[in-house]
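We include this case.
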Amino acid sequence: ADHTLFTLQSQEGIIVILIYVDDIIISGNDKVGIQETKAYLKSVFEIKDLGELKYFLGIEVCRSKEGLFLSQRKYTIDLLNETGKLGAKAAKTPLEDAYKNHQAEDENDQPFDDAKLYRKIVGKLI
């Protein structure tokens, strides 16, 4: 996928623009410059300003007095829901050297039967 990072540094501050496919983040410490950048982009493209960044590409963004906190909690829960593994028990990893594959003790403890779903989930994890 296409991704690009642009920066503009001036005496007023810095403006950072991150583009990933059709998603964009505009940030920095030059508030006037950021507003001017948004106004210019709106004059050239059809864009929707979603306001303060809260979620981007599976990453939740939370602000506090201490700074930014980034989390993929929601993304992880969504993946677990998609695979039906939300209530699954945690497993020790990495596996022991002598580990032997075992039969599932119950039907809820099955590995992925669907190779297509397995590939899709692995792709989302990378």
The radius of gyration is 21 Å. The chain has three helices and six strands. The longest strand covers residues 3-10. The beta strands are 3-10, 13-20, 23-28, 55-56, 59-64, 67-71.
